[in-house]
Task: structure prediction
Amino acid sequence: MPTVSMTVNGKSVSADVEPRTLLVQYLREHLGLTGTHVGCDTSQCGACVVHVNGESVKSCTTLAMQNEGADVTSIEGLADGDTLHPMQEAFRENHGLQCGFCTPGMVMSALDLVKKNSDPSEKDVREWLEGNLCRCTGYHNIVKSILAGAQALKG
Amino acid sequence: MTATGIGAPVRRVEDRRFLTGNGNYTDDINRPGQAHAWILRSPHAHAKLAKVDTSKARAADGVLAVLTGADMAADGVGGLPCGWQIHNKDGSPMLEPGHPPLAVDKVRHVGDQVAIVIAETRGQARDAAELIAVDYDVLPAVIDMDAALAGGTLVHDDVPNNRCFDWEIGDKEATDAAFANAATIVSIDLVNNRLIPNAMEPRAAISDYDRTSGRHTLYTTSQNPHVIRLLMGAFVLQIPEHKLRVVAPDVGGGFGSKIFHYAEEAILTWAAAKVNRPIKWTAERSESFMTDAHGRDHESHAELALDADGKFIGLRVATKANIGAYLSTFGSSVPTYLYATLLAGVYQTPAIYAEVQTVFTNTVPVDAYRGAGRPECTYLLERLVAKAARETGIDPVELRKRNMIQPDQFPYQTPVALQYDCGDYPASFDAALEAADYAGFEKRRAAAEKVGKLRGIGISTYIEACGIAPSAVAGALGARAGLYESAQVRVHPTGSVTVYTGTHSHGQGHETTFAQLVSDTFGIPIENVEISHGDTDQVQFGMGTYGSRSLAVGGPAILKACNKVIDKAKKIAAHILEADVSDIEFADGKFTVAGTDKEMAFGEVSLAAYVPHNYPIEEIEPGLDENAFYDPLNFSFPGGCHICEVEVDPETGDVEIVGMTAVDDVGRVINPMIVEGQVHGGLTQGIGQALLEGCVYDSDGQLLSGSYMDYTMPRADDVPSYAASTKSVMGASNPLEVKGVGEVGAIGSPPAVINAILDALAPLGVEDISMPATPQKVWQAINGSTIRQAAE
Result:
């Protein structure tokens, strides 16, 4: 089995994997980072979004081997100790999550939006989220959270 | 109200773990020595299983075992049970054909379980499954309900005409008499579209068997672990409760679909003991589409009789309900007692008669999905009322007001079994009309017209029975279980508290809401309270979470246990403070002797209970740990009004929701932030049903809407921000005065959306549109309308 190495949440990691291993399986099954979730098998739901070299990526749609040497950030890599990242804090403050399953993908996706557009409108947020499904919140409070998170990050 | 007490929008306790990736969902769990399972499923909707040859698969790399329905049958494994027995019009019981966890003689829907492969890795199990040679003798599939009732093809050989039961409720003669005297009769034919629940977490299970103790442990994505233990242990695998632990850890949404006892739970539990290894199985989304119980799927004909004053005098309903290939756990109760008992709605219709036929087809079983029966009922009633307004020329607001049950009429006995306990329907109706600026609508319509848009407004009132349910009532109606709830309130020596609840939280925020309730009752900081749920080894018993019951039934159980704690603590305080117990008062976390400055803090009393040096030991036991069971006396009855405003683009048929207002009476609100969040989620599922979602089978029984590329889930840019508020009358049927909020959004919204579209299209003469009202359907309705054609 090939060895795949990358940097995940600032740490160098390495694992021997079957060639068909997806990045999300690498994170969940080989590194035990189970915060990244699998909600579908067609790359539609966005529960598995992580950052690869600073861009949001659906980790179910890329093989681990394709990410050799990459710099990956998952939901576990955001908080600073006990202090939540401002986007995580915005979700908490605005009740932007219910069952929590889509949440890691939503937060990771939101951060990529804010990086590209630091002052998004409600419409911008709703359109950006086309690749992230949530069945609980009806999106109302997710949108509110991301708008608040964007403002917090602007400082 | 304190900052964390009842009524405060406390930020959720559970969020930190979910936001940092530290949730503990079933698929996140791994057991030492764990093997992996893949389920081979039928690609055919209906076929005889001639031969299942597993020899090649068994010889494949890493494979530990390949097991089939024949193996299960040889071990005497039972069928999956139905939890609610319905009776036919003639009094005979419904037909309950067998439901083997792994198919034995026949497969009856695409996705039906044929074999389980257990291997060292999931990939190996999946690869090996492809080596199983199944000789299917394909039979014609029956998908359409009328075709099924004609009886040419039988899903179950022992169910003639594929009819599970033919049930009725209400007074047929009185209703017929009302129709004979009607000034106007309005009739409608409706389809309530079949939906696929799609909780974002796919179902998963891990089974673990300890050979030395003979104990089974099942981790599963369930809304009610004790119910699974009861059903699977007693009916399927014959495992007594003390040898079976069921754990439902963090669960990623349910919406009803995770209530039911699914085949995979029994297959894995049975197989783990056979191979003596823990086994893990996680559904792929495509498996969720073809095995999670679906929702809705009704075809109805309904008639409303009105007198010359526009008063409703009779309602007659005939419904066919598709229940799929097998009776799911509560599949029989949804189109009956959760549906037709609500047909009075918020109106004073004096005579109602409904008959429901349920039909087996070669499709996935149909069972409860958010609202379960009540959305079907509300859709029928509010479409009918809107049509009556058009046909009589009476304004839709006036027609509803003229027929509404008034606040002084409670308790109100409906003609379809239920007795509503309390409410003020005109108040929530008026509040919604105001919040939606109903009066200003015509101006907005005119403005839209100027830019080429057709604008419409639609109203729906609703009522639901939730807080399920008084056990004796449910039992009399056919339920095979009690529907109480239980709680244990364990006060620790230093005054912190762990609460064990039989309900289950999978998004509802119980860890916060219930902690608020306990914090408020004991006058202790919310940080000192922890809520535990989901493990049958920890929680004494429970019936779980569905039917908006957690707070309405589980909440009073917690309150009862808290009050037992307070009663005992008063005795301890009285002894130590040398006072009579009748003089002890408890408030703000302190026990005081009335009229003195003698007091003990909550934590001092709890310490005394566990260090009983100075203690009334002859009167009471040490410790401060109380159990309670609570069985409600009646359902609770949330109600309200939802108003939708749409703009239709006549060139494309696209419908944009430009306003969605919900005013709900949910009784006392413990956490308004969570209540609003529940309404938002429900509204979106309701809008999904109205505009986007629809399960589609072809005539061979292939599921055409079997992925997120084919089944349209609501996305963020499909829906607007909402105006949700509450206008509550305190609940009358439980001591917390709560009613329930989990389902209201999905119940009231679909007819509001469709009524809005029909209002927008009314100038074109369009009278009907079915759900989901896709742009294609709306465009066809617009372009098929005679008025538009005449104009062109």
Q: What stands out?
A: The helical segments of chain A are 23-30, 86-93, 103-116, 122-128, 140-154. Chain A touches chain B through 56 residues (CB under 8 Å). Residues 140-154 of chain A form the longest helix (15 residues). The CA atoms of residues 87 and 149 of chain A lie 5 Å apart.
